[in-house]
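User: Modeling request: complex.
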Amino acid sequence: MFTRFFTVLGAPFVRFMIYLGEVVLLAVDTFKSIFSHKLRWKLFLTQIVEIGLLSQLVVVITGAFTGAVFSAQTYFQFNKLGMGSAVGAVVSVAICRELGPVLTALMVAGRVGAAMSAEIGTMKVTEQIDALRALAVYPTDYLVVPRALAMMVSMPLLVAECIAVGIGAGYLVAISLLEVNGTYYMANMVRWTRNRDIIMGLTKAFCFGLLIVFISCHKGLTAREGAVGVGRATTEAVVNASVAVLIFNFFLTMFLNIVYPAGYQ
Amino acid sequence: MSAPQEFLPPESPSRTGVAAATTRVATATPESAKPMIAVRGLTKQIGAQEILLGVDLDVDLGETLAIIGRSGGGKSVLLKHLIGLMQPNSGEVWIEGQNIIGMRERALAAIRLKVGILFQGSALFDSMTVEENIAFPLREAGERNAKAIRTKVTEMLEVMELQGQEEKMPVALSGGMKKRVGLARAIVRRPSCILYDEPTSGLDPVVSDSINRLIRRLQKRYGVTSIVVTHDMKSAFDVADHVAYLHDGRIYFHGTPAELQSSSDPLLQDFMHGRSEGRGD
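Assistant: Request completed. Predicted assembly structure:
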């Protein structure tokens, strides 16, 4: 009775720990490869285009409308207290520290993570990865390293773009539609937004990028059972990466707040 | 994993590796001859299914061996063990005096440069053209001279009778053409051994014959050691110097095509003549 209870309860836990271990091992293998083997520049640049360039529209729309709606909601509340000009500071700090990196990561997980998982998964089930191995090419070097490096470069830039567009959209909404005084808006925003807020956002972007790339590539590399398996791997990659970003964000925030404390100091 | 072992493989239990078959034919192999590929006691279980139950096999340098057997009998699984794409539960696989079982993936690269494989589904890189697929092993080996790559790719296309198909994507190729491109990619770096996984499956008799002719031509032209996994008896008789019959996870028969044809073993007779309810059942 007790044995059965612990078996039922323990099996998913063990599976989860094995899964975490596999993702960590993939990450370790990738970093070893980055520092000890040649980089395939063509593949790296292709992935920069895939991750960075082709995500522009998604990131700009996400940043713009998040900034706009956040600016409006903040104004509705703050204006009652006569603090309409403080909207700029709130929008700016929130987008730099939280909304920019998290929302960009979720969008990238959906767009890029799914594509990575599906592409690598299809290669797995059609024996293309076995073909790579048979041709003396180590799959991590060829498939994961270019994607990981491209993600490390692209994600901070995408988040920076999202932050800039979000702040700009918030400004436009506040000034044009809600008639906040532009000078005070800007003055407060510049006064309360510090370099550390931007650094925190970009650090999160880098970490989220790594989470997305390793979770997605791992799901692709372990895809099974034909088209159904690839579909399942793709779905799981997006869901796992998104959930991981949200959970990891909390712990990262708590840690980074020690290094880059919030507020005017 | 320790450094690769470089010893002679242990002697095979018998050249035929057969325990029960009455049709065993011991082929003459000099005691001093070192097989290019030696398999010893290979077992493999996938899930609850036992696929290989102790395979022993020797393949000599320059020899063409056809491994025949029923579908789902473990022929492809055995072939993948020979290049380290699968790890067995127990046993050894020796390639040119090196036991590759337990070797790390990166260490296997040196072995894989010596052994090319044609996959059953060709496994062409679907995001690359025919030319890029064939040039891939050369580029990965560090060849940067575009002219040298072009020359080798053109030579391969001629050997495979695929001139003019360079710019096509794999999706636009027929089954036979895919096999040829896969073969060109496997041999462009001139491996000393080629493994063929069902080279004629899914092809019409004429295209199958052209693939068989191609295998023979490669043997003559480059003198490579070949292992052909097939259940196509015509293909086996056309290309092989020796034939091994894999049955119930073990090598049941190992001999020349002539010895196989003259065998009176009911199991072999049934397989050769495609009888589903023969005397061997």
